[in-house]
Amino acid sequence: MARNKFDVDEELEQEFNWSHYKRLAQYVKPYKSPILKALFVIILANVAGMLGPYFTKIAIDEVIPQGNLTLLMQLSVFFLISLLVIGWCMRYRIYAITEIGQDILKDMRYSIFEHLQRLPFSYFDNRPHGKILIRVVNYINTLSDLLSNGLINLISDIFNVIITLVFMFFIDVKLTLYSLLLLPILFVMVMVIKNKQRKAYQVLSNKQSNLNAYIHESISGIKITQSFAREEENYQIFNEVSEEYRTSWMKAVKVQFLLWPGVQNISVMTTCLIYFVGIRQLGVDVTTGTLIAFIGYINNFWNPVINIGNFYNSLITATAYLERIFETMDEVPDIQDEPDAQILPSIKGTVDFEHVTFRYEEGKNILNDVSFHISQGQSIALVGPTGAGKTTIINLLSRFYDVNEGSVKVDGFDVREVTLSSLRTQMGVMLQDTFVFSGTILDNIRYGKLDATEEEVIEAAKVVRAHEFIKDLKDGYHTVVEERGSTLSAGQRQLISFARALLADPKILILDEATSSIDTKTEELLQEGLQQLLKGRTSFIIAHRLSTIKNSSQIFYVEGGRIAEAGTHDELMAQRGLYHHLYQSQYDLLQVTD
Ligand SMILES: Nc1ncnc2c1ncn2[C@@H]1O[C@H](COP(=O)(O)OP(=O)(O)OP(=O)(O)O)[C@@H](O)[C@H]1O
C-alpha cells in the first residue's frame, strides 16, 4: 500500500464479497447455545403476544354475545398471564442479547489487536496511527447493534412473521392475501437503495478515519503545535476535515432513511386496504371480531417486517466497516516465521552481514552490498552522518525488516530461518525513540522479562545509574508514570529504557543513541557500569557523541549505503579519513564551547 496521510482517503485493497458475512458468522458460532436460549425466550414472548388479539376475537364474537361472564373472566386472566410472560421475556432478552453482542465484539477486537501486534514496522510506517486505532475501536463498535439486537431480533422477527402469518391464514385467508399485496414494493425499494447506501457508508468510514487520524496526530504533536503557536492553522485544518465528515454523514443518512418512510407508508396503506376490504365484507364473510383481530395482526406482521428492513439497512451500513476490519485482519505480515523456521538455540553472539542490500522503498537503496563479520563479545560502534543507514543496520539484525539481497546471520543462522521470538528474546534493543509505557517504573523496566524480581530490576537500574533518580521519586520504583513518560526527563526515560534492555540479559545488545540525552557526568558513570556488563556480550552502539565509543572493538563509519571505514579508534584516527575528520570537528567544537 502507498503511504497514507490523514487527509487522504484509504483505498479499499480488498473488495467486499459475501464471504465476509461467513467470516462474521464464525465469530457468532461459539455463542450458539446462549443465542438459542435467547431465541426460545423470544419465541415464547411472540407466541404470548399472538394470544392477545385471538382472545379479543373470541370475547367479541362469542363470549360477550353469549353473556358468559365466567369465560370472560377466564379469558382476562389468560390475557394477563400472557402479558406477564411477555414482560419477563423482554427483560431476559435485553440482558441476554446485549451480553452475547458484547462478547462477540470482544472476540473480534481481540483478533484484530492480536493481528496488529504481529504486523511489521512497515505496516505502521505506511499509515497514520489514528487510522489503525479507529478500526480496533470505532469500526468494531459500529457492529455492536447489528450483532446484539440486530442478529437476534432478525431471527425472532422472522419467527414472528411466520407465526403471525399462520394465525392470519387460520382466521381469514382472503384478508391475509390482501395484507401481502404491497410487499413486493418493499423488496424493490430495498434493492434500489442497497448499493447507494453501501457506497455512502464507505465514504463516511473514510472521512471518519481521516478525522480520527488528524486528532491523533494533533494530540501527539501538541507540544510542537503550541511551541510554534500553530493553533489557528490547526483549527482550520480540523474544521475542513470535520466538515467533510459531517457532509458525508448527512449524505449517508439521507440514503439510509429513504427506506424507513417507504416501509411506514406501505404498512399504513395495507391497514387501510384491510379496513376497506374488511368493512365491505362485514357480515358477509368477515365478523367484527375477525376484523379487529386482523388489524392487530397486521401490526404484528408489519412491525417485524419493518425491523427486518432495518436489519438489512444496518447490515449494508456495517458492510463498509466490516470490509475495513477484515482488510486489517487479512494484512499478511511480511515479516513472520517461515513454516519451517527453527528455534534459535542459545547464541554466542557472532553476527554476519553478507552482501546485504536493503531499501525501504523501490528505487532507493539505503544499504548497498554491505558485508561484515562480528565475533562473539565484540563491541561495534556505528557512526556516520544523519540518515546514513546506521539504525537500518540494527533494524535488519533484529529482523524488523527483511533484506532485499544477501543475508544477515546470527551464530551462522540466517535470521529469516529462525523464529522471530527466539531471535528477539536473545537481543536487548534500545531504540532511538525511547518509549515508556503507562504503569510503574518497575513494570517498565520489567517489560522484557516479566518474571524478574524487584532486586534484579534494582540491580539493572544501578548498573545504568538510573537508581539514583528513581529512589528519589515519590514512590520509588512504584511511581506511576504516564504513557510516553511525559513526567520524566528525556535522560531519565533513556536510563529506564537502558535498564529494560539490560535486564533481559541479552547476548547481543543494541543501543541506538542510548545516551544522547544523558548528561556527561551520568554518562561517565554509566559507561563504567556498562563496560562490566558488555563483557562477553556482542554489542552494537550507535552514537553521535564519539567520545562515548572510543573504546569499541571496532568502529564502522557508515556513509552512502556502505561501510566506508572500519577499524579501532586509533586505526581510524591514523588513517586521517572520514572518521578522523568527524572526530576532529567534534573535538574542535568542544574546544570552542569550552
Ligand atoms: N521506515 C522508513 N521508510 C522509508 N525510509 C526510511 C524509513 N526509515 C528510514 N528511512 C530512510 O532510510 C535512511 C537511513 O535511515 P536510518 O534511520 O538508518 O539513518 P541513521 O544513520 O540511523 O540516521 P540518524 O543518525 O539520523 O539516526 C534515511 O534516508 C531515511 O530517510
UniProtKB/TrEMBL annotation:
Compartments, record wording: Cell membrane
Positions of transmembrane segments: 35-55, 67-90, 151-171, 177-193, 257-278
Example GO molecular function: ATP binding
GO cellular component terms, semicolon-separated: plasma membrane
Magnesium listed as a keyword: no
Membrane topology: Multi-pass membrane protein
Name of the protein: ABC transporter ATP-binding/permease
Organism per entry: Enterococcus phoeniculicola ATCC BAA-412
